[in-house]
Fold Rieske domain-containing protein.
Amino acid sequence: MRNEWYVACRSADLVEEMLECSILSTELFLYRDAEGVAHALHNQCPHRGARLSQGKLRGDCVVCPFHGWVFDGSGRCTLIPANGPHASIPQGAKVMSCPVQEAGGYLWVFVGEPHRVKELQLPFELTDPEWRAVPFVVEWEAHLTRVVESVLDVSHLPFVHPESTGTDVNPKVEGPEFSVTEQEIVIVAKPYHPLVRTPLNEEDNGSSTITFTWPNQLILRTDMFEGNQMATYLALTPVTEAQIRIHGLALRNFLQDTEAIDDIHYEHNVTVLEQDRPVVERLRPKRSPLELTQEVHIRSDAPQVRYRIMYRKALEQEQQGGEGHEG
Ligand code: FES
Ligand SMILES: [Fe+2]
């Protein structure tokens, strides 16, 4: 899925230095120009393949570490020192640049075909000042499909996260109740998903939903008490086909200044993900099978089945050079 926006890093992480980043095996580096505008360029000089991130920043440009060619934020070469300052620049002296946008505290990069850039939809909690966001990052040796499905999967909770769902919990799943649109799958989770369940939150007191937004965003929202809510946001970035970086936010709209809650919520999220990791990393095949008959499904897997249908359709469209997933 190349024609999509993926998180490269937190906005706050890109300051004065260049930052290396890989998205779907495309090696990039990011930097900010003198105005603070972020740029994402391929990390390979068109002259002799040097790693541009080993070079230097000079004003709005980057200088290659090998022979000093200078490139601007659009990837255009502006100076070849060995030819002197007045020489013309060969046509091919360009570095591929990728569209970048900053939203919800992240830098998003589009590594696909630039004319297929689409709008990025984010959950409102990422930009609402009422919400406190505690960031975390984890990396798994897993394919994006298996990670998405593990979050959509309510029947694994008593087995992978027993302490979160309770020791004597009945593993029978009611439903789950869910809805699907072109871009989204929304599940009403019962029992509550452990990413958002806390001792403050008992099952009868509210509801918990898991929302997947195509192709790589998940948010788990839980009502706490009297309008207070907690949420866990996950943005999945495939570093390669087999490795994923999960940029997460532990979110809440109450006691925003209480640092102790930051720590508890952070620990909770990282711990729960670490319970999933060894299981999800060893699933085979690494990518969820596109043929539905290749694995056995039961009723509680219905949201994952819908995801596979969505994924397969988008992949077919991308392979045909079509519009990809539109909604
Ligand atoms: S390899 Fe970059 S200038 Fe020669
Ligand atoms: Fe899990």
User: Anything to note?
Assistant: Residues 45, 47-48, 50, 64, 66-67, 69 surround FE2/S2 (inorganic) cluster (ligand 1) (CB under 6 Å). The chain has two domains: 5-116, 124-319.
